[in-house]
Specification:
298 residues; alpha/beta; D-Maltodextrin-Binding Protein, domain 2; 5-stranded mixed beta sheet; 39% helix; elongated
């Protein structure tokens, strides 16, 4: 088997799209098709099944893909080991994170890691969707509160994410917000119209009072919800770490401190094959030893 053909197949198998695979490899789409055909001919069996525009791996393709994961991750590990002996050589880590955690917390607490590891270069990818990039090796690890269902992943607990209701003190006073019933006449600031974003709050209040939650302004970004609450558009519901400063400086207040919403758990997700890389071990060790207060949580 030709190594170039294997690399091409591996790239194609991860994205299941000829155009994307070609872009990843910086070659033409026809070059990807030609390499795949050569590999299938040399093996004497099809590796990719085509159903219209949809591509999937055949049983032989799935078996070869698992072997390629081991082969190419081992080559990557060897490259990093050799890089340690080169002067002025750096190894890179691509870190994926949710947008708000990445921009408001991770960036603020990564400088000391880079200072301690001058041979490591970090790149960041902030997105609400991290599973696809993780599957395609576009990122080396993901920091997320969603559970990733990819096979072959390690999951490392990082911290518990608390939520809080927020409104400006002036808004609370002007609207005379005193009880949950007042929510019937107040706009709720939410990622979605169906209030799935508010689920941890809804499940924490008495069931008979949940019907009051109906007036929704949809804002699809946490920082937008925060700014809308500050400006008096309504009551928001956000991860507590995102508004620590605003709460401490009394720019925002919790109108319902007696309600204790449920919490999400942030984890580091990484493919098992990459757990052996020294660079990722160092970063994971650093992140898991940060104090909860440094993440803006209790």
């Amino acid at each position: 088997m030709d190594l170039y053909h294997l690399k091409t197949f591996f790239a194609l198998a991860k994205v299941k799209n000829f155009t994307q695979a070609a872009g990843t490899l910086f070659v033409t789409q026809s070059a990807v098709s030609h390499a795949l055909k050569k590999l299938e001919t040399s093996l004497g069996t099809p590796l990719i099944s085509r159903n219209g525009k949809t591509l999937s791996l055949t049983p032989a393709g799935r078996a070869l893909f698992r072997s390629c994961e081991k082969i190419f991750y081992e080559i990557e590990r060897a490259d990093q080991e050799i890089a340690r002996f080169k002067k002025a050589s750096k190894v890179g880590i691509k870190v994926g994170s949710t947008v708000e955690f990445g921009t408001s917390i991770l960036i603020k607490h990564i400088r000391s890691f880079l200072k301690a590891h001058p041979d490591i270069l970090l790149d960041f990818y902030f997105s609400p969707d991290l599973q696809g990039p993780l599957a395609r090796d576009e990122i080396d690890l993901a920091i997320d509160c969603r559970i990733h269902t990819l096979s072959g992943l390690e999951r490392i607990c990082l911290f518990q994410e608390q939520y809080v209701t927020i409104a400006s003190p002036r808004f609370i006073e002007q609207q005379r917000i005193r009880s949950l019933k007042d929510l019937e006449r107040i706009h709720l600031l939410s990622h979605d119209k169906d209030l799935e974003w508010w689920n941890h709050f809804i499940t924490a209040i008495p069931e008979k009072e949940r019907f009051y939650l109906k007036n929704v302004i949809q804002i699809n970004h946490v920082r937008g919800i925060i700014n809308a609450a500050i400006s008096g558009l309504g009551i928001g519901f956000v991860p507590k770490y995102t508004v620590i400063r605003e709460l401490n400086e009394k720019i925002l207040a919790d109108p319902f401190p007696e309600i204790k919403p449920g919490a999400d758990h942030f984890h580091i997700f990484i493919k098992k094959e990459k757990m052996g890389f020294q660079k990722t071990k160092a970063l994971i060790d650093y992140l898991t030893h940060l104090k909860p207060s440094e993440f803006g949580v209790d």
